[in-house]
Amino acid sequence: MGAAMADDPFVLFDAWLAEAEASEPNDPNAMALATADRNGHPAVRMVLLKGHGRDGFMFYTNRESDKARDLADNAHAALLFHWKSLRRQIRLEGPVTLATDAQSDAYFATRGRDSRLGAWASDQSRPLDTRETFEARVADATARFADGDVPRPPHWGGYRVEPRRIEFWQDRAHRLHERRLFTAQADGMWTEGLLFP
Ligand SMILES: Cc1cc2nc3c(=O)[nH]c(=O)nc-3n(C[C@H](O)[C@H](O)[C@H](O)COP(=O)(O)O)c2cc1C
Q1: Who wins on pLDDT, 188 or 156?
Q2: Is residue 71 over pLDDT 80?
Q3: 5, 65, 84, 136: most buried by Cβ count inside 10 Å?
Q4: Is the Cβ–Cβ distance between 64 and 124 less than 8 Å?
Q5: Predicted confidence band at 176 (pLDDT cuts at 50, 70, 90)?
Q6: Does 2 score more than 50 pLDDT?
Q7: Nearest CA to ligand 1 atom 22
Q8: Would you list the DSSP string of 81-130?
Q9: C-alpha angle 8-84-3 in degrees, rounded to nearest 5
Q10: Is the pLDDT reported for residue 65 higher than 90?
Q11: 35: Cβ below 6 Å to ligand 1?
Q12: Which of 60, 91, 77 is CA-nearest to residue 156?
């Protein structure tokens, strides 16, 4: 059985991501993250997948951002990968938990110095009067940490989406597209079915 026919959604995800990494010019790990606030109002934005496996799909962000507020009020999310040139999408949905401090520290340490300084300088999702204000805050952070390492800000960290539902969509000729839906069962096993496209 070839990888494309894998009946394990995590194996199939790895195969599709590997193909995207080989062919997509930019950010093959980019995914849309949908959240909903306490009133059920949805919002969606792109984030980068930074680690994944059977225990979840990770992204990192400012924990005072709008998405973080949504997740504090309603700890469920949907993720969407769309690889246009491969004509494929993967949808994942499930509950969200915080990454541990150790995980957030480890990922933060892999970021470039400018990105780490930017995490200190940005009040992500808050109103900004002018671009100069942000640039001045980057300069402040640069001066503050001039002599050493840039630690992870306390308001910055990871989230883990634990998928309960994973759907693979693939373009087929004559609009006979294929949709394979994997659903987690209470015992941790996964069942698979097809959906009308
Ligand atoms: C390709 C792409 C990747 C992005 N990756 C991230 C990310 O990993 N983390 C993040 O906080 N924002 C990322 N952003 C910015 C978000 O889309 C968004 O503007 C920001 O997180 C604020 O969202 P919010 O106000 O809904 O919280 C990315 C944007 C793009 C276009």
Answers
A1: 156
A2: yes
A3: 65
A4: yes
A5: confident
A6: no
A7: 125
A8: EEEGGGTEEEEEEEEEEEPPHHHHHHHHHHS-HHHHHHHHH--TTS--S-
A9: 25
A10: yes
A11: no
A12: 60
Q: How far apart are the first and last CA of the chain?
A: 24
Cα distances (angstroms) measured from residue 161 to each of 85, 150, 183: 26, 27, 15
Distance CA 37, CA 16 (A): 31
- Which of 11-15, 73-77, 176-180 is the least confident region? 176-180
131 is catalytic: no
Q: Structure tokens of 75?
A: 């700890």
**Residue 173 reports pLDDT greater than 50:** yes
pTM: 0.95
Report the Cα 125 to chain-centroid distance in Å. 17
* CB 63 less than 6 A from any atom of ligand 1: no
- Amino acid 153 reads P
Query: What average pLDDT does the structure give for the chain?
Result: 95
CB of 89 closer than 6 angstroms to any ligand 1 atom: no
